[in-house]
Amino acid sequence: MATLRYPYLISKTIDPIFGIAVGVSAFYLYERREGRKEGHTLNELVMRRYKLEMAKFRNQPKTEDGISESQKQKRLAEAAIFENTTK
């Protein structure tokens, strides 16, 4: 007996979107049920990383030769803070 094969669950375009939505919602439900330490939720970590990257982008000079010593020290301090918060 021949079986029918369906290449897509819903449609070619909507299947990936549906899969991502199911995965993200499952993760948020798991995170809400299990809980995390204060400051280590996904939203807080993403926002911290976003703010750090935006600060680097705003303070970045056009050429590397134009970086002052204070800017180099500031970047090193930001990188150290980020490393300490992600552990």
What does this structure look like?
With 87 residues, this protein is mainly α. The chain has a domain at 37-87. The protein is built from three helices and no strands. Helix 2 (42-59) packs antiparallel against helix 3. The radius of gyration is 22 Å and the shape is elongated. It starts with 13 loop residues before the first helix and ends with a helix. 0% of the residues are buried.
Write the layout of secondary structure elements.
Layout: H1 14-34, H2 42-59, H3 69-86
Helix pairs in contact: 2-3
Structure keywords:
87 residues; mainly alpha
Q: Rg from C-alpha positions?
A: 22 Å
Low-confidence stretches: none
The residue fraction in helices comes out at 55-70%
The number of helical elements comes to: 3
Beta fraction: under 5%
The mean pLDDT is 80
Sum this structure up briefly.
The protein is mostly helical and 87 residues long. Helices cover 66% and strands 0% of the residues.
